[in-house]
Amino acid sequence: MILDRIALSLTRTGMALAMLLALLPSAGAAHPHEWIDLSVTLEFDSDKRLVAMKQSWLFDPYFSAYVVEELATNRPQRRRVREQAEAIAPDMVSNLSQHNYLNEWTYRGEPVAGLSGTFVAAEVRRKRMELTLRLTLSEPLDLSQGEFSYRVFDPTYYIEILHADGHRPRLKGGPRGCQTTITAPEPTQELLDYAADIDRDENPEDGLGQHFAERVTVECSDE
Q1: How far apart are alpha carbons 39 and 131 in whole angstroms?
Q2: ω before 90 within 30° of 0 (cis)?
Q3: Domain residue spans in the chain?
Q4: CA-to-CA separations, 213 to 2, 9, 32, 114, 216, in angstroms, rounded
Q5: Residue 222 — very low, low, confident or very high, per pLDDT cuts 50/70/90?
Q6: Which of these, 57, 80, 112, 221, is most buried using a 10 Å CB contact count?
Q7: 50-59 and 34-44: which strand pairing?
Q8: Distance in angstroms (rounded) separating the CA atoms of residues 97 and 18
Q9: CA–CA distance, 3 with 92 (Å, rounded to integer)
Q10: The whole model's pTM is what?
Q11: Which residues of 35-64 are buried (b: 16+ CB within 10 A; e: fewer)?
């Protein structure tokens, strides 16, 4: 069963999805082995305060075919594909809660804790599974009073998570004058060489993925 394999992989690694993806075939030993295209919408309340973030994760075709077994057949049936994706996705979100949904948020330079994630939707687009989840803050944040930033990454760097090409985070209901900036990672040559040399069966340096993560900052004028 798919769920049994996922449960086993999570138990062995303590990192949601990381070992699961490590089991997949790869063209070589270098990290990362799999990838996710990320789309983000920041959601604000009637007082223009940040209350949640909706994230859509579009998985690569290899991972998608692994968890949605119907995709591995010669002629996938659309109904079966949809059923399998919808069956597995809520458990994926639940397991990610153990690792803060692979998200790191800061506000005014301080870590933001207490994120609560819920499953929103799952679908398959052109043989790629897309998982949408919503991360809710325990307390709203007034971004006119300080800078907000977030990063989404797998600490082991088995999975590379980057914003989809041409996608900029959307601000739904946000205050006027907000600007978003995506800062690309700048790993050192030493880190690049280290990541390239890691074999699939090796345990990478703790926190390796943070060096390859994009950082998004949101600044809003109080005027």
Answers
A1: 10
A2: no
A3: 2-220
A4: 29, 23, 12, 21, 10
A5: low
A6: 57
A7: antiparallel
A8: 14
A9: 9
A10: 0.84
A11: bbbbbbbbbbeeebbbbbbbbbbbbbebbb
